[in-house]
Amino acid sequence: MSTEESQGSREVRVGQVCWLEIPVSDISRASKFYEGLFGWQCDLNPVPQAETPTPDCPFKGMYFFNKKDAVNGAFVVMSDDHRVVNFFEDRPRAMPVLPTIQVADIAETLKLAEKLGGKKQWPRTSCGPNAGFYAHVIDTEGNMIGMWAQN
């Protein structure tokens, strides 16, 4: 079997990231940050609409976001005792599972992230000859995310 197979009319790309869930505590703040930074569109109608989380379902709401064919996922509002943040102030160089988003310009995107309430965690850094540049930011919810650009 190849890594790209047809499943009905949809192409299956085995190994490709197909969904991204980001834990948040403030959906309004998080959606404004990601919409402003990456142009992601967020549906502010939660699914499911849980008033009180249960042990079987510890999230308060799931808010779908997308950007055309680039990314699909959800901001997930969790009860406090189930929320995991992937950045710790006392261990700033610890490496979590790190989603990295392609951007047009690292320096400009870092400035925009700070303007939107995020924090620069790692500056614009070369990946090596002809391999582009990367940086890390902490979003408004305490999650570390990466960004990459060719220039």
UniProtKB/TrEMBL annotation:
Q: Which residues cross the membrane?
A: none
Q: Name one Pfam family in it.
A: Ble-like_N
Domain Glyoxalase/Bleomycin resistance-like N-terminal: start-end pairs: 16-41
What the entry lists under CDD domains is as follows: SgaA_N_like
Top-level lineage group:
Eukaryota
InterPro entries, sorted: Anthracycline_SecMetBiosynth, Glyas_Bleomycin-R_OHBP_Dase, Glyoxy/Ble-like_N
What PANTHER family does the record tag this protein with?
Answer: GLYOXALASE-RELATED (PTHR33993)
The protein depicted here goes by the name Glyoxalase/Bleomycin resistance-like N-terminal domain-containing protein
